[in-house]
Amino acid sequence: MALYSEKVMDHFINPRNVGVIENADGVGEVGNAKCGDIMKMYLKIEDDTIKDVKFETFGCASAIASSSMATELIKGQPVEKAMELTNKAVAEALDGLPDYKMHCSVLAEEAIHSALEDYNKRRKSE
Ligand code: FES
């Protein structure tokens, strides 16, 4: 069996939603201290719905594929739904990740949660 699924390879070579959103409504940045990889998520939110999402990932192939897939999974979803996104769901949508690469999908879950928390904080202080 190949180390990575076709979906992982596809999202690594051709990642969706790469970039920055100017004036984003929520921004989250997380890192993994062990491997040193960093992921940043930008959210544009209107009427409690994720209108747009972009990411920048400085990391391994699995981290890039996970961020790409995670953005696809939450785009167009209500904030509440996006909050429930788990790294497992991301890995499953990628047709699996090798066990020792599961932590890469955790980074995607954390980055999205942290961007959503930022959004909630900003809303409260408005
Ligand atoms: Fe660090 Fe994949 S090895 S996120």
3D architecture notes:
The chain has five helices and three strands, in the order αβββαααα. The chain has a three-stranded antiparallel sheet. The longest helix has 23 residues, at 102-124. It has helices at 6-13, 61-74, 79-83, 87-93, 102-124; strands spanning 26-31, 38-46, 49-58. The mean pLDDT is 96. It has one domain: Sufe protein. Chain: A (Alpha-Beta Complex), CATH 3.90.1010. The chain is an alpha+beta fold and 126 residues long. Helices cover 45% and strands 20% of the residues. Bound molecules: FE2/S2 (inorganic) cluster (FES). FE2/S2 (inorganic) cluster (FES) is lined by residues 32, 35, 37, 59-60, 62-63, 104, 107. The site of FE2/S2 (inorganic) cluster has 9 residues, from α2 and α5.
Write the layout of secondary structure elements.
Blueprint (H helix, E strand, L loop, with lengths): L5 H8 L12 E6 L6 E9 L2 E10 L2 H14 L4 H5 L3 H7 L8 H23 L2
Antiparallel strand pairs: 1-2, 2-3
Helix pairs in contact: 1-2, 2-4, 2-5, 4-5
**CATH fold naming:** Sufe protein. Chain: A
Runs with pLDDT <50, length 5+? none
Please give the alpha-carbon distance between the first and last residues.
52 Å
User: Main sheet?
Assistant: 3 strands, antiparallel
Rg calculated over all Cα atoms: 14 Å
Highest CATH level, the class: Alpha Beta
| Overall outline | globular
Helix content: 40-55%
Arithmetic mean of pLDDT? 96
CATH architecture: Alpha-Beta Complex
Domain module tally: 1
- Backbone structural class: alpha+beta
